[in-house]
Design goal:
Number of domains: 2
CATH class of the largest domain: Mainly Alpha
Helix content: 55-70%
Number of strands: 2
Shape: elongated
Strand content: 5-15%
CATH topology of the largest domain: Arc Repressor Mutant, subunit A
Structural class: mainly alpha
Largest sheet: 2 strands, antiparallel
Number of helices: 6
Order of helices and strands: HHHHEEHH
Length: 141
Amino acid sequence: MKARDYYDQLITSMPFGAERIVLRVLSFRVGLKHAIQKADLIIECAKAGIVFKDERQVRKTIVDLRKRGIPICSSSGESGYYLAANLAEYREFVGREYIKKITDMRETVKAMNDSIRIMFPGEYAQYQADKADAAGQPQLL
């Protein structure tokens, strides 16, 4: 199935509202080379009948669409938002925007946990035991 056809099917299945309008505007922006800047996206949505109070509302709508599985990509700088045209664009976006951040956060939490385990050994051991009990698993020391 072509990317554009997939996006068109999604749009027709959505109720009218901000998400549908944002997706409709973005459906004409498939691929990085067709990206739209946030300010222009807001203008196009207003033309279609959805007026956003501020940029935060647009960002939240995009987050909501992503949580529904819509592969809305973005590029910092001049490019803006676009729908993934292919797997390579999607993978580049996810790697840059999500995987690197998740990996960094995981490393940060591990480093802090290591310090907390040393600083508060009794409390940390109890926390680990409680966590294992809640998951129905044996405690690992």
